[in-house]
Amino acid sequence: MRYAQGGGLTPKGQQARERVRLEAGARFGRGEKTAEIAAELRVGKRQVEKWRRSWREGGLDALRSKGPMSVERLSPRQWERLERELARGPLAHGWDEGQGWTLVRIKTLIGRMFHVGYTVQGVWKLLRRHGWSAQVPAHRAIERNDEAVEVWKDEVWPRVKAPRRTWTPTSASRTKRARG
């Protein structure tokens, strides 16, 4: 089972995965073979072997979910407010527009707004979980002249560029021509 694009499983996905593990546990009790269980449940054999070891050591309880690995500390209402503030841009919150939003800036903004501490990695996971991705702004020189660039590409570059060598058979001989 592949994890969602955002990384990790949602609570609903965790419950579904737990049901698969518990089904495997019931099949272990009936003495079914690992390969059969893996094929039926559409998981890898190694994963089933790992579950079987856990089941031997602790029964079905060992296959139950341990709960979410991390709990989101922002409520849905706080997340909506954070998104609105991010849309306003870093300048509205006292940062220069030069770098845009960085994880450190978002971490600081969350701390200021909600008095909730996140690590930089935690901010990255929070953003990914909500469908955000890293965006790198295109930096362009102020002096850039797009028309001049196009002229150069169309007129100058073809003259400067070396012509491509065509494919023709060559001699494989190591001898050199005699000097005359």
Automatic annotation (TrEMBL):
SUPFAM superfamilies (UniProt xref): Homeodomain-like
Segments forming domain Winged helix-turn helix: 98-155
TM stretches of this protein: none
Name of the protein: Winged helix-turn-helix domain-containing protein
UniProt source species: Streptomyces millisiae
